Each structure stands twice: as C-alpha cells, then as structure tokens.
C-alpha cells in the first residue's frame, strides 16, 4: 500500500509532494525512535487500542487490536471555520494567519518545538512501566497514552514541516534526537526529564503534567495562526483520556489504601500509605506548575499581543480581548518578604493560565477526598502552595514550606523528606511494583476500575501477551 494511504489525515497528504518528501525522511527515523525509546518489551504484542482515522465523531475513536509499531499515527486538524479571525491582542478582528507571519516566525517555532518536545519525552519517561503493570487494563491504558503522545509529536512535526521550511525540518529531526533525562541532550522542560518509573509516578504524571498540556493546548487552540489552533483543538480530545487515566488511577489507589487503613497499617499490608501519595502529589504538582513559565513574563505579553497564544477559553469566558488596560496583582518576594505587586495583565498571563490549572487540579483532589470520606476516614489529601518547590519564575530562587511561607534553604533541605518522596519512599513504592498480567486480576495496592474500556469488562484481554 502507498505509504501515504496508511497515514490517516485530513491535510491532503496524498497531493502535497513537499510534505511527502519531508515525511519520507522523517518517518523511518520516527519508527526507529519508537523501537528504541517506545514501550520496552511489548512491541510485538496485540494491544486493544483506539485509533483516530478521521475527525468525524464516529472516526476518531476506532477500537481494535494493533501492534504498536503498526499503529496508524495520523495528522488531523479540526475542520476550518470559514472567515476565521484573530481573537485577541493587537490584531484583534484581522483575518487569521494561514501562513507563518514573518515577524513572529521565531516565536511561533519556539512555541511549537517546546510543545512538540514534551510528546516524545513522556513516551521515553514511561518506557519501562509496562513491565510492572498492575493489570492488563492499566497496561492497555499506558500504551494508549504512549501511542497518542506519538501522534501529538506527529501533529507538531506536521506544523514544522509544512509551515517552517528548512529550519522546521531540522527542528523535526531534533525532536527525535533529544532524550528525556540525558544530561548531554535533555528534553527542553525539566518535568520531562524526571524519571517516571513506577505507577504512582505515572498516575501523578498523567494527572498533573498531562493537565498542563491541556492548558497549553487550550491557550494555543485560541491562536490566530489557524493551523496551530486547529491542530491543538483536535489534540485536546485525546488529552482528555490521559488525564482520566491519572485522575482515576490515583482515585483507585486512594480507595485501596483506604480499605487497607481500616484493616491496619497499609505499609504492612502491601499498600501505598497516604503520606507517600501526598509527597508524590507535591512533587508532580510543583514541577508541573513550572511548565507555565515565569509569573511575570514579557514573552506572554508578546505572544498575546501578536495573537499567537490566548487565554484559557478566550472567546467563551472573556469580553475584553485587548487586555490593554488591566492589571493583575500577584505575590512576589521583595526585601525578604512575600509582597503583592501589580503588573500589567498581559505580562501576567502565564500566572493567569496557571491559576486556571490549579483550580482544575483542586477538582481532582476533591474527588479523591470524597473517596476517603466515603470510606469513613478523616484524612485528606491537598495541593501544596504554588510557591513550594519551584524551579522556574519568581519563587525559584527562594525556599518555601508546603504552605508557602518563606523559609531558609537550610530549613528546606532539612525538612524536604517530609514533603517530597525520599529515596526510601521511592524504593518502597518500587518494591510493590510486581507485574500482574492475568486477565481479570489486579495488584494488591490498587482497586479495580469502575468499568472497562469501550464497554468491555475489566476481565477482557486488553493486551495479548
Ligand atoms: Fe500530548
Ligand atoms: Fe497527554
């Protein structure tokens, strides 16, 4: 079969010779990367996966057994709306950009490369997880997330190859060359260089770090560069499942821990104690907050002014799309104290987006706490203060405790094992990670899901080993 007929797309790939030539070179490299860095040990197995073959409601979720290297990674943009205009910033109301505007070329390329880099990075981080899956249902979900992150890479590579010429092609190649956690050629953002080598980390990652993806993609889905907006709109449909995996994964873990707490000490009963879950929340929440960038940012102002990156639900929840006059009050450190400072709103848009994200995370916490309450327990999980354990922005050069009070670097060092997973915590969690691969069986540290995938029961053979 013609190579391009195997690639599901709605970008007229079979007619676009230039794009075909670019993909011809990139595609074998992508498949090599997938073999080298994709899920280790499962490449020849049949997995019950959903594949998007069109953007129609009945086309984007086709379920069947597939071997992952044969997955049909496709290129999809949400269909164009006629007469699209730039929805915010200095060029509000002008026709949307259909090609890259010269003066914003570097900014746009940087936005796309930064987003694109996260997609293969997460596949690399999760590479070993299949070997310790708690059930076939979870194993399948892991692989679903992995192949879709692969497709998200394709989505960004399409934009680079189609709209950025030579340097876009070079950037597309570089996306396959960097490696998560490799000090010589690391991934661009730090959360994507952190190990994600046990299932507690995986669920926290998909809950908190994929959720950052939701907010970045939502802001880019507003973009006046229409191909980017339409690409991100389609990616968001897939991203929702990744967050579901994380959110329900932690909820099932909390449920199991709560059951064990009523029988005794979860640690003696092979469960994950709540304090270890809390420390992992602290770790991944704080690293994910960094992904939004500095609190006060001239980039955010420039991207907004240019119409490249909007706010979350820009059209739906705001009336003033110019944002020329407003101010935002935020907390900064000055003279050794946390103080309020007014900044022009356009410079505070990273912080505004981060605020939306935090509110969304709080809903997850409420669901997990409901599980604890329903089990009759008074313990609760919480989000750390957003100043805690930050590596980017206003708070990165200071130390804060979990409630956001300024402390000395020495005190932070002394107390950090109260707040963040210690080596012993990580080793304990790892000791529980024994694979369970018999259909219908599940590991002792997690509760089974409320339902299976696409109407199939939990006992279904989601992966044929
Ligand atoms: Fe993604
Ligand atoms: Fe994702």
Descriptive tags:
mainly alpha; three-stranded antiparallel sheet; two-stranded antiparallel sheet; 13 helices; 7 strands; binds fe (ii) ion
What do these coordinates show?
- This protein is mainly alpha-helical and 465 residues long.
- Helix content is 48%, strand content 7%.
- It has 13 helices and seven strands.
- A hairpin with a 5-residue loop joins β5 (399-400) and β6 (406-407).
- The protein is globular, with a radius of gyration of 22 Å.
- The two termini are 28 Å apart.
- One fe (ii) ion is lined by residues 119, 149, 152, 213, 239.
- One fe (ii) ion (FE2) binds at residues 119, 149, 152, 213, 239.
Indicate the low-confidence ranges by residue numbers.
Answer: none
- Report the helical percentage: 40-55%
Total strand segments? 7
- Radius of gyration equals 22 Å
Question: By helix and strand content, what is the structural category?
Answer: mainly alpha
Seen as an oligomer or otherwise, the chain set is single chain
What's the overall geometry?
globular
Quick overview:
It contains 13 helices and 7 strands. With 465 residues, it is mainly alpha-helical.
Topology:
Blueprint: H1 3-6, H2 17-37, E1 46-51, E2 62-67, H3 105-125, H4 136-163, H5 165-175, H6 199-220, H7 226-263, H8 274-290, H9 298-305, H10 314-317, E3 327-334, E4 337-344, H11 349-374, E5 399-400, E6 406-407, H12 409-419, H13 423-432, E7 463-464
Antiparallel strand pairs: 1-2, 1-7, 3-4, 5-6
Helix pairs in contact: 2-4, 3-4, 3-5, 4-5, 4-7, 6-7, 6-8, 6-11, 7-11
The chain binds fe (ii) ion (2 copies).
One fe (ii) ion is lined by residues 149, 210, 213, 239, 242.
